[in-house]
Every structure is written in C-alpha cells, then in structure tokens.
Give the backbone structure.
Amino acid sequence: MAFLNTKPNIDRPDDFYAELLSAHDGLNSDESQDYNTRLLLILANHVGDRDVLSQALAAASQKRE
Amino acid sequence: MLQERYQLAYKLYPYERSADQDQDTPVRHPVVVLGGGPIGVATALDLGRQGIPVLVLDDHEGVGMGSRAICFAKRALEIADRYGCGKPMLDKGVVWNLGKVFHKEEKVFEFNLLPEEGHEFPAFINLQQPYFEQFMIERVRDLQKDGVPIEIRGGNRVDSVTVKDDHIVLEIMTPEGPYKLEADWLIGCDGASSPLRNMLGYDFTGKVFQDSFLIADIRMKADFPTERWFWFEPTHGSGASTLLHKQPDDIWRVDFQIGWDVDRKEEMKEENIRRRLDAFLGDSVQYDMVWSSIYTFQCKRMEQFRHGRVIFAGDAAHQVSPFGARGANSGMQDVDNLGWKLGMVIKGQAPETLLDSYNTERIHGADENILNSTRSTDFITPKSDVSKVLRNAVLQLSKDYEFARPLVNSGRLSLPCTYDGSPLNSADALGGPARTRPGSPCPDAPLGDTFLLPMLGNEFTLLTINADAPDTLEESGVQVKRVALSASDDKTGALKERYLGDNDSAVYLIRPDQHVAARRPSFDETHFRAAIRRATGQE
C-alpha cells in the first residue's frame, strides 16, 4: 500500500504559499471556496492512488478538542 | 532652535562649535553623511578607514532611546568586524537557537536552527540597537586617535540642500545659529522619514500594513529560557500574535500585535501594558518595565537610490516591516556595497558610473527584503478571510505534520543577497558551488586558529586555493593582493565544500565588500585583468 507523504515536499515553500494566496486575489468568500474545491479535485486526481487519498482525507479531519 | 525629536539613550557626540562656522565662505568637504544612526556611522567607518575625510551631521547629540532593531544577522556582524567592531557586539549579544511556535492554547512545534559550523559569527545575535551604535562610535573614537579622518557633529540640523553640478550646498542650523557647508558627495542615512529625501522631493512608495504592534521591553530576573516564542492568536487574549525574544541584561522584548484602530494613548498606559503582559506571562512572574512603544509598519522604497552626487542608504532608501530583521541588517549591506565604490571614485581609480552598480545591486537587495518581509507580514497579519483560513490551516496541520512547518512564516532570517546579474560580475568559469558563484557574499570558513573572512575585503583580493598566481597585480589603477591557501589550511573541509566543490583548485577575485566578482580553476592573466576592469566599472 502506498503511504501519504507528510514530510516537507514542496520546493521553495514561501513562493508556493504566495502563489496560492495570490490565486485568491479579487475573489469573494464563495468564489474562494469554489476555487479551493476545484483545486482539491485537480490535486486529488493527480495523486490518483485511492489508499493515499483515503489517508489524506483522514489527515485533514483533525480532531480539535 | 533645535528641537529633540526623540529621547536619547546616550549623549555620544554633543554639539561643539566647529571652525567651519567661522568661515566667510562655506568649507567644502569630500563626503557629508546625513544621520548619525547605525548606517551613517558605518558609512563614516567605511570611508574613513580608506583615508577619505568624512563628516557626519546629526540634529541630535547621541543614540536614541529604545532597543528598536534587536536582531543583527551574521552578515551585518561580519561587516562590523571588517570595520573593527564586530567582536564587542558578539560578546554582548545573546545567541538563541531554539524557537517555539504556539497557536491558540498550545505549542504546535519547535525548531532548532542548528547553524552551519565553521563560521566566526553566529547566524544572528539579539542586541539592543543602542549597543550596536555605541560599539561603532567607540570604534570611530579609536580610529580618530590614529588620525582616521572621521568627524561627527551633533546638534547640526540640515535645513536646506541645493544640488549644484559638481557639489551640494547645505544650510545647517546649530544651537549657536546657522552656517553653510559644501559637499562633493552627500549620503542620506537619515532614516525612514528621511528629511533629505523630503527636501529633494524624491518619492518613497510601497505598501502600508493596517496593523500595529505594541513593544514592551521588560527586565525579568526569573529563570526564563533563551528561546524565541511566537504565539499566533494567543488565548491569553493579549493580541492577534505575540512574540517573545531575549536581549542582553536580563531584558526581554515582547511584541503584541494589537490591530489597526487602537487608541495609542490608552494602550501606552503602564497599567494597560501590564495587563497584557500579566495575561501573557502569568500573574506570578515579576518584571520591571524598561521601554515601550507602538509601531506600525510598511514596505517602501525609493525608485532610485543614487541621484547624481546624492546617494541614499538604509531606511532612508528602503523600509521593510520588522519581521525577519531586514532593516538595519540591509542598511549595513548598503554601506558595505557603497563604501568601496565611492572610495574608488573619489580617489580617481574608477569612473563615476561605478556608483550606478550600487543602485542596481542594492535595489536588487531591497526588493528581495521587501518580498520576504511582505510575505511574513501576510502570514502574521492575514489581510483577507481566505488568507486567514489558509494561515490557520497551516498552523493546525503543523502540529502533527512536518510538511506544514516550512510554510509557517513568522519571519525569515535576513540573509545577504547574491548580486546575480550584476554588471560587475564576470561569467562563472569554475562551475563550483552555487553559494560562491559570482555576485555571492563570501561564506566564512575556519582556517586553523583563524577564519577566512578577516583575510578578505577592504581591497580587491585574489584568493587562490591550491593554485598559483602573482602575489600582487595592478590593473587600470586597481591594486589587487593575493591570499594563498591550500588543502593543508583546510582541516575541516569547509573551504573545499564552500569554494571548490568538485574542483581541485580555484582562483577567486573578491571585491572589497567580500563579494565574489569572478572565479576560475586556475590563474589566467587576461581573464582576471578583464574581471578587475569589469568589477570596477571600467569595462
């Protein structure tokens, strides 16, 4: 089974963060949420592996006390 | 006549009447520096050590109150060391390596900076700005005793500036009335609100952030660890973020992010500052209040740093938000860059156009600093809802998942920029390590009992590693000395790793500011003569 990589894996993380933020420039709250959802589906398709996707779904649902 | 714009910590250059004030015609000085802060005094040290008479004017008579810039990075210390005052700063400063990041009620992660071995100076120190300034002025006083031509005049306020073709006329106010001076070159180091820039009507544009920070310096005898704590959305309710930093003398800096619409007068009341501090530290911690202030911040710069014979450096030329400590640190790099170029132009060793490379290189540096500090600011004070949602998601994930930690941005440490694409660089003919490519600041390396950097700088140097070259070289009026090293000097292998890479030998041409101008596996006279001309604006 493939495993979800949770180690740092993004080259130049500050550049990525800035690019992600700028993608939201000029969008209102609903548009931003739509954008994020589309982005999520695009990335999920790129990952493809069902085991990895299940682990990612679990990782994102943090239990906040 | 002269009004104090701020309170002094130390009176270091009290007003004294100068003979210039009794002359019928204005006296001409080669270089006048406006502003006796860290950048102005560093400029005086750089030029004075080259034997160029330099006069510093300041409307105040010493160093301003308050810790202000408390984080001095390796490169600024190396530059100060080249001027002869880096060691006392290091001895006095506090070094920390452990940082902790908190979000709401819990610690999300901690990090150890694990600095690279084999450097004389640490990645940075925490030191109150008045100490930094004081050590530099003490150095000025020592050099003056040896006849180094530096003069600092306190209580001298420049009220008007007239730019002529080949000089500048200054009208100066003193406690004993006005007088006039002329300067061949005028350097504006008079801070972010630069009166000089305003008098000449130059623009200063960029971004103002809608937030403010309350700084409190407190003295705690308590056993508090030497760590940096950055708290996002603290549950102690003291602000949108809180930063805790150690300084020398048992002093701690606490920064509270308190928002844009604040009643400054109300917030600055001691009882209100104590209320925030008590909530943060807990009721049982005893402390004395030392200094407090409220600041807002912006990222701005001048379009050009050089305007003919008037040149700007430090905050007068560019202003950044404080996250990442890029203010005073980048100002020191301005001086490092400008000093040798102006020195060579004044001595007739290089054409005036060499100074345009100061403009190119330091604007490159300023833009890099503004980019980094803007990103940190966007993370710390998110400007939109979605930006805050993203920021908080990163913080939540960073507790359990290592991947999110590099995305947490509470300030990126100031690193010197590499002048990629500078007109002074010769093409890389070595293919060695990327960190020492032409344009790079030379990284230090241990050489037995000493270090590499003190052997470099002040003049052009040919650094040879396992390679032959003449001991001196003169090209178009530029003197170059050789520093010869070999594998036997390199016990730790750091020199090889940083300067040779896969090569067996290398020859580097290094500028007076310890930046690489050219490199090649072996000495080639034609190649290096051309590189010297290029690095001095003669090609």
Remarks:
- The two ends of chain A are 31 Å apart (CA to CA).
- Chain A has a mean pLDDT of 93.
- Chain A touches chain B at residues 5-10, 13-14, 16-18, 20-21, 24, 27, 29, 32, 36, 59, 62, 64 (CB under 8 Å).
